[in-house]
Amino acid sequence: MTVTTTDLFATHEELLNSALRAITERGYWSAYPESPSPKVYGETAAADGKAAFTALLGKDFPLDQPADEWVAPEQSPFGIPLGVRYPRTSPDALIAAARAALPSWRDAGPRVRAGVCLEILARLHKRVFELANAVHATTGQAFVMAFQAGGPHALDRALEAVAYGYAEQTRQVGSVVWTKKADTLAKTYHLVPRGIGLVIGCNTFPTWNSWPGLFASLITGNPVLVKPHPGAVLPLAITVQVAREVLAEAGLDPNTVQLAVDTREAPIAKDLALRPEVRLIDFTGSTAFGDWLEDNARQAQVYTEKAGVNTVVIDSTADFAGMCRNLGFSLTLYSGQMCTTPQNLLIPAGGIETEAGHKSFDEVVDGIAGAVRAITADPAKAVEFTGAIVNGDVVDRIEAARKMGDVVLDSAELAHPAYAGAVVRTPMIVKVTDGYGSECFGPVTFAVPTESTADSIGIFRETVGEKGAITAAVYSTDESVLDAVEQAAMEVGVHLSANLTGGIFVNQSAAFSDFHASGANPAANAALTDGAFVASRFRIVQSRRPA
């Protein structure tokens, strides 16, 4: 099958225009339904997607890239036998192919690139259940979360990046005849991509965290190497497969997008990151490697999302039960293995005021712990919220945190009814007075007694200012407190949520309305997704001739 690039843009122009409106209006809008219901996707969609996923297991993944060898690095947190083998291509070959693909992709222009990117997203959406199974199996996310975060929500973020990239490239004319008195010049403004992009994926959210950078680089004319985490290759392998199919059918070089697979024993991320041809790097993961990239990959524009200390300031509440339920769910979701999960609960040692009267520090912490217990009481239901522990490092952090203070709520092992090999842990809450200033990724929350709400705000400002955060929250019935915490949040550059007691949680961010991370504190140097996330991926080079 072949498609024309003109047809692709025309096919998806209405969707692009809707996305362009959405990034300016910032209201609720989503292009891809988040419910996996048969009423939305069809009666056989779930079964067909599961069958397509199952058909990939234990085989060579069908990807038309040269292979020096085939590797199968993934181990499922659920114990699902994956055994998918991927072509490992040498960095030299990847770089050479990407360099060869760059001119045609650059010269295609924003309209063609937009059409191709949107067609890739459309085909990924058609395989959303297959992707959901891949995300579920490789990350340990419960299936519904894997479907939503790994599919529709990730697609929305990718579309958002395409919209921002298209807007930035088309905000001015491509050429003009310029006259000043007796002089007339024909001026042309060339959109020049930075060079080869490198996307370094993470284990926990392989599509949600990788697609924005991938599509931001593609829409702005840069070929991309996709380097998945060795534990979560399949979702990004499917992504690359689809991208290459669309590119080839459109008469473009499929090597505009390539898969760069490695193993834990033989990593290639550093090698690729230091190549002079690599001019863009998108990374989500540990602070140590993110800092290394920023310090060493000087030839590239580096976008990082690293670790942070997400903080909740609890001053007072008009809905104590709602606050506890909301925070309890936030702590339980995916066993706290989200960059947006709250870690530090800053609570005055003297307690707080609520609609039900004064609550002591212990009563506040017990209320939140009770909400977690309620969510995790039935193991069969609990695992649909907790998922599985992604790797052994998380278990080690749980054990270390147990020794840091008084354990208010211990982390318990749960047996997964569907996966005997799954490692499942419930959230832990520990009362501490120190040691909470660094991220403890996983189902660990620190309840910190403070001298007062003013002291809580000071601790919030200090810890987030030093270590960064992706999210922050505050509970208070006092407008002056809400204003003070909002001011502190602006100073340290973290997004703030206030008085969440219903069905919206601090963990969540909505594409086209919420920015994910701010790029204004040490946890991340970029935001998903704003103009700055795409604008530096290309440059405008001008030429002038007498007219």
Automatic annotation (TrEMBL):
Signal peptide: none
UniProt keywords, alphabetically: NAD, Oxidoreductase
Domain Aldehyde dehydrogenase: 92-493
A molecular function GO annotation: L-glutamate gamma-semialdehyde dehydrogenase activity
Keyword NAD: yes
GO biological process: L-proline catabolic process to L-glutamate
Pfam families for the chain: Aldedh
InterPro entries xrefs: Ald_DH/histidinol_DH, Ald_DH_C, Ald_DH_N, Aldehyde_DH_dom, PaaN_2, Proline_metab_enzyme
Cellular component aspect of the GO annotation: cytoplasmic side of plasma membrane
Record-given protein name: Dehydrogenase
Organism, as annotated: Catellatospora chokoriensis
